[in-house]
């Protein structure tokens, strides 16, 4: 059989990210050809294109979020460990998982939450982590509206409520209070990273192009450059595939050619 080689750069990246944990799902012995093709693409070629445009920690956080979107539990578990290995704090990892709840739904996020806690336990990280909430029942609507306006322009929260179809106003109210008032206002990661990981989750999820476009504009409004957005998609590409990555790039191209909302 022809020898299949994994590049030195890919070897170093895999060792840094995963250390011994990768042995649990190592396909090199059973499927050496595919393993080499993928590893060289994911840990050398795409990394070469993304390096220098987004920080290593941010890149790993983007991949972690995208794995949740495309329901890749095994790779998510691996990337929780990888995130810890490159210096992402446990509370930052937890905030990525919590951020997924209003976008992916709790039924989908629960398995990721349990997997994350198992990895934390394996790494002697004491649970529960400190609370990061900043709002209460009394102020979550007002604070959520402020967050919407901060991302998409003054008056957007009020306009969404006023223009919602009759009988659906409660959905906009829930989105303001629950999604933005309860989750976006949390500490642990800054707004720029929170919006970027939301975009990455939705890119991995697929099938929600209008929401993806909205959050691409949100990323733009938090001063993330187009080059950084493209680098994030490049980093996610091996895990979410070309169709969803190309959709994300189309959305980015549209968003960054438009005026700020």
N-to-C SSE series? HHHHHHHHHHHHH
Structural class: mainly alpha
Distance between the termini: 57 Å
Radius of gyration: 19 Å
- Unreliable stretches, pLDDT < 50, 5 or more residues? none
Share of helix, binned = over 70%
Strand content: under 5%
Which terms summarize this structure?
single chain; 261 residues; mainly alpha; 13 helices; globular
State the gist of this model.
With 261 residues, the chain is mainly alpha-helical.
Task: Describe what you observe in this structure.
This protein is mainly α. Helices cover 70% and strands 0% of the residues. The chain has 13 helices and no strands. It has helices at 8-18, 32-50, 56-69, 73-85, 90-104, 106-122, 140-152, 156-163, 169-184, 191-205, 209-221, 226-240, 242-255. Helix 5 packs across helix 10 (191-205). The radius of gyration is 19 Å and the shape is globular.
Topology of this structure?
Elements: H1 8-18, H2 32-50, H3 56-69, H4 73-85, H5 90-104, H6 106-122, H7 140-152, H8 156-163, H9 169-184, H10 191-205, H11 209-221, H12 226-240, H13 242-255
Helix pairs in contact: 1-2, 2-12, 3-4, 3-5, 3-10, 3-12, 4-6, 5-6, 5-9, 5-10, 7-9, 8-9, 10-11, 10-12, 11-13, 12-13
């Amino acid at each position: 059989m022809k020898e299949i080689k994994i590049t030195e750069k890919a070897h170093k990246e895999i060792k840094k990210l995963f250390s011994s944990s990768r042995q649990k799902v190592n396909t090199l012995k059973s499927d050496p050809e595919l393993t080499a093709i993928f590893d060289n693409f994911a840990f050398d070629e795409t990394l070469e294109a993304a390096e220098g445009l987004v920080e290593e920690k941010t890149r790993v956080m983007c991949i972690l979020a995208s794995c949740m979107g495309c329901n890749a539990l095994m790779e998510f578990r691996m990337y929780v460990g990888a995130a810890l290995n490159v210096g992402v704090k446990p509370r930052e990892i937890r905030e990525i998982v919590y951020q997924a709840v209003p976008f992916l739904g709790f039924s989908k996020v629960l398995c990721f939450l349990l997997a994350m806690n198992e990895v934390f336990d394996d790494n002697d990280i004491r649970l529960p982590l400190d609370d990061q909430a900043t709002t209460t029942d009394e102020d979550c609507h007002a604070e959520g509206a402020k967050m919407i306006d901060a991302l998409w322009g003054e008056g957007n929260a009020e306009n969404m409520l006023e223009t919602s179809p009759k009988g659906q106003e409660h959905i906009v109210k829930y989105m303001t209070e629950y999604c933005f008032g309860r989750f976006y206002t949390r500490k642990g990661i800054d707004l720029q990273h929170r919006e970027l990981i939301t975009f990455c989750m939705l890119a991995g999820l697929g099938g929600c192009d209008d929401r993806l476009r909205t959050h691409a504009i949100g990323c733009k409004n938090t001063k993330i450059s187009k080059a950084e957005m493209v680098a994030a998609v490049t980093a996610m590409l091996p895990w979410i595939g070309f169709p969803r990555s190309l959709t994300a790039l189309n959305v980015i191209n549209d968003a960054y050619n438009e005026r700020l909302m």
